[in-house]
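Consider the tokenized backbone below.
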């Protein structure tokens, strides 16, 4: 995972810079974002049901192979000449499709590998490795690769990391399949019914839907645009800003991993996530690369603290045979409006300007996050001593 995420960090810089080389407008990267997010959202429920039916190791392996081949093709196209925007969109669509199967499979695999009493520490390691690779080392390497090897070289490096990740997954010891025997449609229905009956699950998923709508598109599209066109800096600066976010996530993961599991997990999660969302406004207020880096540090650090506890909460309270479907529903509902977020970013920025769009996105996102904490039933079951596995909340 660490090797693959290192490549993802390289990809973030390379795809943003290549899209803006083709067309120096926010809409260019927005199109790629829509092409990536749409198939991921459409297939996540299927991916979750499949991950509860078939060996999760195999799903991860083939997802890595598919993504590695797609990125290798775009590297080859760029090495021979100039790629077109639709080709970047096709690569994004392949990555989004493969991720729809890989993400729930990986979420559900963790409890098969780690004892329940060590899940918090395991998720802290995940949140430590993830930002180290995708936000700290990956973007820094990506900025250097784009500057020295050009975008095609950066894409080639990303393809190599997928190959290495696939090799690691192939060497995992065989794990038992979940063994679900009902039809795929029935499994998906069971997963949806399970989530519907638990306020803490569905309300958090819906909360993420609207907060992601507000800030994911503006952050992914406008942050590199501000670095390139407002600060007039290069890909290395953008990589450094993302790396600062990775450093913040490392700090957050260490904090969450060293702390005891909170007595009020939902309050803990939502408090940190509200801070992370509010800090997105800092991207709009910043007038220097240092200001952007400081905002990235807070955004990613606060998000990581909440994410460690959220992942542990799901793994403790959701039976493993249901976890793949619940994780896929989480991803599906949470990211359902991502294509719209990318699509709206360019027209909104053309009216308000990139900076004001980021400020509005962070402010409204924080208000939405805090508001969902008060949904009736959200914090039921937080009392000490309640059973965590199999309970109905």
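A designed sequence for it:
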């Amino acid at each position: 995972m660490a090797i693959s995420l290192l490549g993802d960090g390289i990809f973030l810089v390379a795809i943003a810079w290549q899209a803006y080389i083709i067309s120096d407008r926010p809409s260019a990267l927005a199109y790629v974002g829509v092409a990536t997010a749409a198939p991921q959202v459409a297939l996540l429920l299927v991916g979750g049901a499949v991950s509860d039916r078939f060996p999760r190791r195999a799903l991860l392996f083939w997802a890595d192979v598919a993504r590695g081949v797609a990125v290798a093709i775009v590297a080859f196209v760029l090495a021979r000449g100039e790629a077109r925007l639709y080709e970047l969109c096709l690569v994004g669509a392949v990555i989004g499709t493969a991720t729809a199967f890989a993400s729930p499979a990986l979420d559900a695999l963790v409890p098969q590998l780690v004892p329940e009493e060590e899940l918090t520490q395991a998720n802290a390691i995940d949140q430590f490795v993830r930002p180290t690779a995708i936000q700290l080392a990956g973007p820094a390497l990506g900025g250097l690769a784009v500057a020295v090897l050009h975008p095609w070289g950066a894409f080639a490096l990303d393809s190599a990391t997928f190959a290495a990740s696939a090799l690691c997954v192939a060497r995992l010891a065989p794990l038992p399949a979940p063994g679900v025997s009902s039809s795929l449609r029935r499994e998906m229905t069971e997963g949806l019914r399970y989530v519907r009956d638990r306020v803490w699950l569905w309300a958090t998923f819906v909360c993420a839907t609207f907060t992601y709508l507000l800030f994911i598109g503006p952050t992914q599209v406008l942050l590199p645009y501000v670095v390139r066109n407002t600060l007039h800096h290069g890909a290395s600066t953008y990589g450094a800003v993302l790396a600062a976010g990775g450093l913040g996530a490392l700090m957050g993961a260490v904090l969450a991993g060293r702390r005891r599991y909170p007595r009020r997990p939902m309050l803990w999660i939502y408090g940190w996530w509200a801070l992370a969302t509010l800090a997105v406004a800092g991207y709009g207020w910043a007038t220097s690369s240092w200001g952007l880096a400081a905002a990235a540090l807070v955004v990613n650090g606060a998000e990581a603290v909440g994410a460690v506890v959220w992942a542990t909460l799901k793994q403790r309270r959701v039976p493993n045979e249901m976890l793949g479907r619940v994780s896929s529903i989480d991803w599906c509902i949470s990211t359902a409006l991502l294509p719209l977020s990318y699509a709206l970013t360019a027209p909104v920025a053309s009216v308000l300007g990139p900076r004001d769009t980021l400020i509005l996105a962070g402010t409204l996102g924080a208000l939405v996050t805090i508001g969902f904490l008060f949904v009736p039933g959200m914090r039921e079951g937080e009392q000490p001593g309640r059973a965590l596995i199999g309970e109905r909340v």
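Residues 119-170 form the longest helix (52 residues).
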